[in-house]
């Protein structure tokens, strides 16, 4: 059984006299211990997907249709009280803004003890020792000192380690990480990614890692979902997608990596911008920016077409694969 199963999920936001769709027909699953990335530009719907799964959508947002199953439970049907038993305990979330994740007027220890005792009936001293042990586990060199410090007294890397420690306290089965390394320098970023990967492997914790950077997800995730304008446009093994991207949008994202440009040359870019919720194009939403767009891309929405390494929603890829398959058949006939 899948740990997390999302089926035909659509999310909308109430705005004035109309509802705007942010996610369209999202379907995927995560197995226990699996590390899955969600990648795309800003505005693709990555964070909305994470918030929808964790039931943290803002007041104007709501799930219009679809299913979100965690194990054998349908999360959409849970009450607020039932969610308190799952969020944090079985499903944990790491947010992008570290200072917003920590209470600035409470010490690290107070916040960790509060998290433990909200789910477990243990004494303060037991909770304190558990917190210090977990701070040591995330490689904070002076966990006893850190326990009594305030968030502003810690560096960015230390704060992110503390957040990971708080997440680990309740031994979750799934961690949703929303661009957790964006504000860190390259060295700290590598350390945090290594730490997250190590924790997931040691404790068999599943990870949904939200990012815009293929360079980052290649270090930690086994499988990748590429999102554009609220839809998944390609999905498959991370290394397979990086080495042989099929969708033109995925190709554009990979070509835009700094290492793909020659020294002294401008960085490669995808022309145009991500469409807003109020101006989403018909057909394939990427067609106004796609250099290979076919006439049908402008008015028809492509279904997933399965290739050797990934599943891709693209008429161009489907046509190329079909032509190649026909050529192989004709060649075999001639022989």
Automatic annotation (TrEMBL):
It holds the Pfam family oligo_HPY. SMART domains: AAA (SM00382). InterPro entries: AAA+_ATPase, ABC_Ni/Peptide_Import, ABC_transporter-like_ATP-bd, ABC_transporter-like_CS, Oligopep_ABC_C, P-loop_NTPase. The lineage of its organism: Bacteria, Pseudomonadati, Pseudomonadota, Gammaproteobacteria, Vibrionales. One of its GO terms (cellular component) is plasma membrane. Coiled coil: none annotated. GO terms for biological process: peptide transport; transmembrane transport. PANTHER family: DIPEPTIDE TRANSPORT ATP-BINDING PROTEIN DPPD, OLIGOPEPTIDE TRANSPORT ATP-BINDING PROTEIN APPD. NCBIfam families: oligo_HPY (TIGR01727). It is an enzyme of class 7 (translocase). Its EC number is 7.4.2.9. This is ABC-type dipeptide transporter.
């Amino acid at each position: 059984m899948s740990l997390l199963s999302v089926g035909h999920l659509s999310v909308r936001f109430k705005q004035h006299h109309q509802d705007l769709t942010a996610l369209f027909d999202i379907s995927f699953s995560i197995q226990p211990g699996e590390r899955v990335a969600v990648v795309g530009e800003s505005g693709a719907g990555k964070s909305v997907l994470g918030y929808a799964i964790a039931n943290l959508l803002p007041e104007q947002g709501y799930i219009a249709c679809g299913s979100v199953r965690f194990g054998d439970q349908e999360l959409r049907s849970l009450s607020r009280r039932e969610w308190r038993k799952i969020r944090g305990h079985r499903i944990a979330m790491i947010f992008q803004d570290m200072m917003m994740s920590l209470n600035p007027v409470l010490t690290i220890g107070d916040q960790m003890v509060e998290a433990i005792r909200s789910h477990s009936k243990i004494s303060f001293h037991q909770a304190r020792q558990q917190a210090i042990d977990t701070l040591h586990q995330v490689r904070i060199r002076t966990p006893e000192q850190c326990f009594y410090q305030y968030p502003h007294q810690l560096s960015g890397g230390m704060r992110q380690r503390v957040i990971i420690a708080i997440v680990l306290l309740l031994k979750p089965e799934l961690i949703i990480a929303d661009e957790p390394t964006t504000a860190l320098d390259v060295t700290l970023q590598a350390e945090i990614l290594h730490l997250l990967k190590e924790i997931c492997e040691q404790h068999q914790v599943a990870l949904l890692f939200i990012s815009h950077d293929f360079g980052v997800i290649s270090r930690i995730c086994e499988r990748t979902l590429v999102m554009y304008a609220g839809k998944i446009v390609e999905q498959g093994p991370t290394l397979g997608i990086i080495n042989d991207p099929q969708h033109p949008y995925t190709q554009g994202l990979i070509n835009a990596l700094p290492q793909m440009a020659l020294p002294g040359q401008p960085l490669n870019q995808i022309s145009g911008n991500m469409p807003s919720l109020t101006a989403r194009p018909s057909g394939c939403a990427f067609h106004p920016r796609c250099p290979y767009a076919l006439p049908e891309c402008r008015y028809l929405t492509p279904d997933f077409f399965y290739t050797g390494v990934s599943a891709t929603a693209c008429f161009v890829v489907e046509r190329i694969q079909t032509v190649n398959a026909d050529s192989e058949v004709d060649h075999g006939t001639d022989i």
